[in-house]
Amino acid sequence: MNIKGRVALITGSGSGIGKGTAKAMAERGAKVVVNDIVQDKIDEVVGEINVAGGEAMGIKSDITNKADVENMFKKVVDAYGRIDILVNNAGIARDKGLLKLTEEDWDIVLDVNLKAVFLCTQQAVTYMREQNYGRIINIASRAWLGWPTQANYAASKGGMVSFTRTLALELAKRGITVNCVPPGLINTPLWMSVPEKIRENLLKIQPTGTIGDVYDIARTVIFFASDEASYITGQVLYVCGGKSIYAAM
Question: 4-62: per-residue pLDDT in tens?
Fold first, then answer.
């Protein structure tokens, strides 16, 4: 899967799936831009990539803020002359039952998980269309199919799926593909923050009986970002160990 020399920006890549994707892309020769809102996390990932012989730069940015996003992409293009790959990975969850869900809970999840995807994609496409080339990969979640206490989260990820499909049609003749990867249970810091009893129950209904690794997602992202996937756009590829088969699980 060829991405050597490509310039890739991964939002929320200071930890978890984003970090794994950034490192995996760098290993395959991409020039990686690490984005997060925590500078220490950015520095750690950039340092690990550079020590391993890859090439990376870090940009701290609030991707829910349009001016910050515009400035971030300008820095990328000033540094590398182009932007080839955007991975919209950053996301948060505030799980509560409907009657306990506050307006703030709704707004912050939709801002980070969906508004930021719009802002980053809009800026990326501004540059990609001039190149007649681009790869946009959105990290959604199997939860968009529905899950109790996740009305805000599921809505944001469902919006991401619809956004993917719409832009795939809009941008196809520009040489820009847009695809979506909804993970299932993945071993990340977010997973480890879930109470042990809940994790045990989730594993009981997981078809494989196991959780995935961040590199399971990273490899799928790299495929969509590669030259080999140039004729694939608007697709939703679950990496969930079969869990997406049962929408109510």
Answer: 999 999 999 999 999 999 999 999 999 999 999 999 999 999 999 999 999 999 999 99
Distance CA 45, CA 35 (A): 10
Helix (H, G, I), strand (E, B) or coil at 120: helix
Query: pTM for this structure?
Result: 0.95
For residue 212, the cross-strand partners are 186
153 carries an active-site annotation: yes
Architecture (CATH level 2) of domain 7-185+213-243: 3-Layer(aba) Sandwich (3.40)
158, two tokens: 């469902």
Measure the CA–CA gap between 133 and 135, rounded to whole angstroms: 7
Q: Which of 80, 133, 153, 238 is catalytic?
A: 153
Reference 202, options 216, 215, 212; nearest CA is: 212
